Amino acid sequence: MRPRLLALLLAAALLVAGACGGSQRSSDAGSGRYGSSESDTGTSTEDGRPNDDGTSDESPTSTVDPSSPPGTQAGGRPAAGSGGASRPSGGAPGTTVAGGGSSQAVRVGPYGSLARSVLGRNGAANVVVEVIQQAAPRPGTVDYVTSVLREVAPKNIERPAPVSLGSDDTVWTADEIRSAADRFGRAQQSQSTAVLRLLFLRGRFDDGGGDEGVVLGVAVRGDVAAMFVDEIARAARPLLDPAVVEQAVTTHELGHLLGLVDVVLKTGRVDPEHREHSRNPQSVMYWAVESDLISQVFTGEPPRRFDREDLADLAAIRDSS
Ligand SMILES: [Zn+2]
Question: How far is the CA of 263 from the centre of ligand 1 (A)?
Fold first, then answer.
């Protein structure tokens, strides 16, 4: 009798221990968040043990979260005039999203908030470039942007097959873009994997403001940027290849996700007229690159690359994160 009781008790104890371990593990996974200052702190030590070289993914992003809002807070549209207004709400800081259809909550802040995770030597080991398309990007666009990312982020970069975005919408607000990214996105943010979601959309962006400048692309959250393929076609003049424009615009939005210009770092080199943009017209981060004025502002092809200062900023973020 007694040994059996003991065995039963032992079995029960093991069951309880097993259950605890399981839930701990799952909450660990849930806590591998970007900018999730609210996530369960008790779990990061366990998670961080294998590859956490001091700075977990949490710390970089939670330090970025508060720092990036200046340019990106709600209503953070730049004083920029036409076209430079790529800044809608910049993503509600700390937006909670369900990643990849999972029930795990992921907190991703405004654009720039994943920069340290994507770039940092101690950030995520993997970066997923997820394409969500209402309309297919032009051939070469995603390859090009991935190659640019590869040059600045020393990571294992993955590119899963594109996901179709089933929608007839032709007017997109920042909220709608974020919702679509959450609905259709499959890749899941985790401590070891940062996901950048690039949406290729029909129609146009509705910035909610009156001063209509048509944007060709927009970054709306730390992990989400959208490119407007129809507007890109319209903005490219007859002699300018829309594919080149699309590469430029997509790289520009990638630059916003990576925290340029002066979103993550404060270098003072930002264009005062067009916040978060470079003053250098040779940089892909020049404001006009995402504007429908692109073919008027640039006499030749628009820049498709980060300039020296952009690269220096990205390297500084990479080496300090
Ligand atoms: Zn921009």
Answer: 12
pTM across the whole model: 0.72
Rounded mean pLDDT, 240-261: 97
Residue 249 to residues 19, 24, 103, Cα–Cα distance (Å): 49, 42, 33
Tell how far the Cα of 285 is from the centroid of ligand 1, in angstroms.
Answer: 6
Q: How far, in Å, is the centroid of ligand 1 from the Cα of 182?
A: 22
Residues 6+ apart with CB under 8 A from 215: 83, 85, 86, 205, 207, 228, 231, 290, 291, 292
Non-local (6+) Cβ contacts of 102 within 8 A are 188
Q: What angle do CA 21, 24, 30 make, to 5 degrees?
A: 145
Q: What is the CA(212)–ligand 1 centre distance, in A?
A: 15
* pLDDT(28) > 70: no
Question: What pLDDT sits at residue 264?
Answer: 96
